[in-house]
Amino acid sequence: MPTIVYKEEGNLQSGAVFGVKKPFRWTSFDVVNKIKWCLKKSYGKIKVGHAGTLDPLATGVVVICVGRATKEIDRYMGEEKEYVAEVTFGKTTPSYDLETDFNGIYDYSHVDESVLRRVLPQFVGTIEQVPPAYSAVRVDGARAYEKARAGGEVEMKSRRVTVRDIEVMETNFPMVKLRINCGKGTYIRSLANDIGKACGSGAYLSALERTRVGEFEVGDCFQVEEIVGVLQQMNRIND
After folding, report:
1. CA distance linking residue 75 with residue 232, whole number of Å
2. Using one digit for the tens of pLDDT, what is the confidence trace for 147-191?
3. CA triple 68-69-72, angle to 5 deg
């Protein structure tokens, strides 16, 4: 059952946190802006923020902080996250997902479940990972994706991230489905690309759902239309 966690019951300005299930092709900021629009009538310029960007082609948990709870965004961003990732072998894209067109075709006939399970342990623990060029990471003061979309060369530096575990949920080659528990800053798109290389092929992220951020699970999140209804009802009460 979706709920709003208040600092003071019913007082959004004092601070409130809740999970929203981000729809496909929405940005995390689209969700934030929708919440702001709903609250504008009763609260004016109330602060609203999200605790961790989710790519437009992904769905799932986005933690929304309202009012004074926006001061706790960094804490929520640091929470462990769980994803269900669909990885497809045999092709690659510059963005490591379906945002961009295919740029490579690879043989995957040798990749089976035994090969997959043999390479996955090297991606568990504290690992070095290079973020995608098509990402929000800042490079020389600009977002990397801005340079990449403009056709410029983007040199991405590796960084340490933590992957707690990777579980094989389904294999239907060339597609596999993985459950991944990881820490802040982990790019699942990069994992998909790196797993493809480790298997002696190529791979891209064909679908992604963030199923948990800390204690916020996807089954306990508001659909967008649900939270809009709740907030509009609050507006009517405050009129």
Report:
1. 28
2. 667 676 777 788 999 999 999 999 999 999 999 999 999 999 999
3. 120
Least confident of 56-60, 140-144, 174-178: 140-144
- The model's pTM: 0.92
Residue 198: pLDDT above 60?
A: yes
Q: Cβ contacts of residue 201 below 8 Å, gap of 6+?
A: 89, 90, 106, 107, 108, 110, 111
Domains and CATH numbers, the chain: 5-78+215-238 (3.30.70), 81-211 (3.30.2350.10)
Annotated catalytic residue 101: no
Residue of 55, 74, 101, 220 with catalytic role: 55
Say how far apart CA 67 and CA 179 lie, in whole Å.
33
CA dihedral 88, 218, 44, 77 (to 10 degrees): -70
